[in-house]
Amino acid sequence: MAQGTRPMLVGAGRLDEALVFGRSRRARGDGPLAAVAGAFALAQLLLVGPSMGLGWDEVVYVSQVAADAPAAFFSAPRARGVSLLVWPVASWSSSTTLLRFYLAVLSGLGLYLALRAWRGLFAARVLAGAGALFATLWVTLFYGPQAMPNLWVAYGALLCVGCFLRARADRLDKRPLWGVLAGAALMAWMRPTDAVWVTLPLLALVVQARHRRLAGALALGLAAGGIPWVIEAYVSFGGLRERLNEASRIQGDLGWNLAVDDQLRALVGSALCRPCDLATPHPAYYAWWFVLPLLAACGLAVAVRFGRTTRTLLPLACATTAAFPYLFLIGYAAPRFLLPAYLLLALPVADALRHLVTAPNGRLRPAAAAVVAFGLAGHLAVQYVVLDRIVDRTDSARGDWARSAAELHRLGVRPPCLLTGHHAIPVAHYTGCGSGAIGGHNANISRAGILRTARGVPVGALSVPGREPPRYASDWELHRLAGLVVRIAPAPGADDTA
To answer: How many folded domains does the chain comprise?
Structure first.
């Protein structure tokens, strides 16, 4: 052993190869990762655009820390991580464009740091390829600049698993333990239940290997992110069991539900498929979805052949447990739910592609390289088409909310005010009003409360054209908005002056 080189602890339950890389090699490996991350951030701003308005879920998260509108109802399944993420901008600025720039840059940085945790476990070009594969999915690009939790769960998962492997490889190095803690905490801050599913294989390994420090880092990370959610369960929902039950009810009563076909239909560009009654899309839109597990299996075969099974099998196992509840336990689909699984799978897939196009001696296989290049080109074309369509639809829908808000202002509905009914949460945020519902998943006010509020501030009931209004608003003044109608309560004090 060369003088000055610290021995690596290798053996049962540890990595199959020692992780010995010099500083110069690490520096060279950072360049491609930084380039991929920078291109990802830039692509978000060019293809999605910083002017896209806030969506329904984004409104809920952003409104918790925004200074220019009341906080929307925060339902049981949600966690406060996204609100914390956007706080540095949303707490003092109402500019959606600024928020989009901030999130695009932050998501690029997050991708870089998550991939960087795997240096030495996979070659730099494999890591860069994995990042590029993940960053060019339409769902990744679409949600990169949005205030949503799933992408950040994916980053936390990749960071946690990579540092977990490093910690098992060298028990004398304490630095990876901090990465395990940070990755677990990030996941739990964003979506506590997702964090549990992702870390199930890791928890099983630390119990089996009796690695106390690693078990402690993992448990402390999950607790740091999850305890605030548990405390809120007792403060606002009557207890942890009650919150979990309410979260299950809102998500359609979790249980055995085969949602694989729903996720497949959603690949055509549906942000939320509930109920998922879309027609099955053309195979061109979902072919990559079936190729992905095949390439991942190929990556595992390569790993077994070259004696590095653990570092490939563990992200595959975590990807499987991360995807399981969204494929088999929930009755609807949203493509963003699978982002953690996609990022974890990207590593073995990129490794498989590298071995398909290059021979063991490093020489290029021209025929295989041409086939892979052709397949990737078609894949990228499909991803761009789907992204372009969903961005157009989203811009149109959120533009309608902004136009409705402008019309409500013209009609005299200005803060402080209250909106109820169809799409009340997003339209209210755009208007600067509070939102209320007397039933459904976001129930937070009674009929009497709405009428009492109408005596002091402007109140409007939103509905779809042609649909009967709530009984309490049947005699309110009717106005047409962009795709909606609103019935506005008589101005406060109007009866007294009549």
So the answer is: 2
